[in-house]
User: What shape does this take?
Amino acid sequence: MDNLRLISFFALAFVGLMIYQAWQQDYGTQTQNQPQQTDTSEGSLPAGDSTAIPVADVKADLPAAATPSGPETAGNTPVAAVIQVETDLLKLEISTQGGTVQKALLLNYLDSLERPDLKVELLSPREPNVFIAQSGLIGTEKERAPSHEAIYRAEKGEYQLADGVDELVVPLIWSSGDGVEITKQFVLHRGSYLTEVRYQINNQSSEGWAARDYGQLQRMEPVSDSNGFTTYTYTGGVYYNPKEKYEKVDFDEMAKKTLNVESDQGWLAMIQHYFLSAWIAPKEQVEHYYTNSLSGGKYLIGSYSPSVTVAAGESKTLNRQLYIGPKLQDQLEAIAEGLELTVDYGWLTVIAKPIFWLLKTINDWVGNWGWSIIILTLMIKAAFFKLSETSYKSMANMRKFTPRIQAIKDRYGDDKQRVQAAMMELYKKEKINPLGGCLPIMVQIPVFIALYWVLLESVELRHAPWMLWIHSLSEKDPYFILPLIMGVSMFVQQKLNPAPPDPMQAKIMMTLPFVFTIFFAFFPAGLVLYWVVNNLVSIAQQAYITRKIEQSAN
Assistant: This one.
């Protein structure tokens, strides 16, 4: 009977998870065919501020024309060019129109195992997958400043991190024509996905010059290719500040209303499964966070700084950071407070983070994520052995008294009241607690669900091989061998336990291994591997405890 509860608990948790994921796919972030067009002139700014965030649409395909040589003036309108930038980890396309990072390839991550020549394209300027990182300066009505629509001058069209060099600087130059020159620098480092974006402002005019800098991420809502069996992961905007901590702003929310939050020590990002792009402002700087919905199904999240004045004849540097890359928790935690929360473990983060740390520590030792999952599963089973023992003893005792329970049913037939009374009397006389296994199961369920999310969300397991036919723990078993083993193991577990007294319950229980096998056939192999090992160890534990109890009874 306790085994029935065990499987029922897991079945309930599993079905609840599937319902939640289906709800998220259907209602969580609905695509807006005609998104609400908000006022982009002053709607994102505090009342009384005449400065406007420029949020006009970027061109979908910026022409790779010759680099302009002159400043942006009424008589000389240059054409935007595309600069190719490559480090050991990133390959970027930066447009001289605003210095927009319009394309980003992650060189260490394959798009798929079938096409090793294709890398993950996190940022893209092309529909229907527009995702770009924009930044710029906002002047006052009096001063001109280079927004993300301004045209910069570039020294050359390609930059590459040379061997033996740890830093790459990509400069873009803009001139106001009246003495203000701004150099926008992208500073990239070897072994890092973090880019510093600096504005070196040199004011040689006769008057002070004031502006504020901003960074924003613009993207279209990706088209879902879910087949009904895949797991749901959040794609959309997020931001962080010390007061509200980690907050999600999905595309539906962006279409309904604009965000209006001010805070220091914060950041903003657009996240998806395994990867993210984020703008991080200096810690001491109070930022105004905003969102917006644009024409053509585009959405954006951004922030801007307070106004900074550069006196005549002086220079000043403004800066913020741009992260474009995978959700590597160690690196994210070192960059900014709370940035590691973009690895979304949900409400079980407090349990999931230590589990991930332990899994990573094991992998650092064994060097294979598949074996690490197996070792972690064994460690968790060992930690809960005493609790599991209580449950298995209860099941073994129930199995021992199955003939007597069946005799009671045969004696009283359809008189359910007398059957229940006789069974309760038997439980009392033999000191059997039919609920004895519930508490151990309830304690373990949060750990199992947390481990599920760790295996689902951790980019470290993406395309990580195990052995033989398992070339990627983040994708389904190509030959469905692990799901079949899992189904067989569930069937064996049922045979080790007493059959439910209700024939209908018995039939339902018999169908569960088949149903779970179908579901798990489309789950990532890493998750199925965990369940297989967990089931096999449970069978061994249960068989051992059952044999001991039966031997003691003889």
Q: What stands out?
A: The chain is about 35% helix and 25% strand.
